[in-house]
Specification:
Number of domains: 1
Strand content: under 5%
Largest sheet: none
Shape: globular
Order of helices and strands: HHHHH
Number of strands: 0
Length: 72
């Protein structure tokens, strides 16, 4: 991976902070997911292309406590 520096307005940064915190993601994960969604090929399924980002935030014991996780 290569670093990227981005300047955001205060309201944009707050929205990014809130969005990523609510999902348990880092801001970097959220930005990478957004870049993938924005640059997806037209025949590519956007949701499927983001699936790798979702795997980063799934607890290791997800299958064992799936029902409890759905209730939260």
């Amino acid at each position: 991976m290569k670093p990227l520096q981005v300047y955001l307005a205060e309201d944009e940064m707050k929205r990014l902070d809130d969005w990523s915190r609510d999902r348990g993601w880092t801001k970097s994960q959220a930005i990478r997911a957004a870049v993938r969604a924005l640059t997806a090929e037209p025949d590519e399924d956007a949701v499927l292309s983001l699936s790798g980002m979702v795997l980063d935030s799934i607890p290791a014991d997800c299958s064992e406590r799936f029902d409890r996780l759905l209730d939260t």
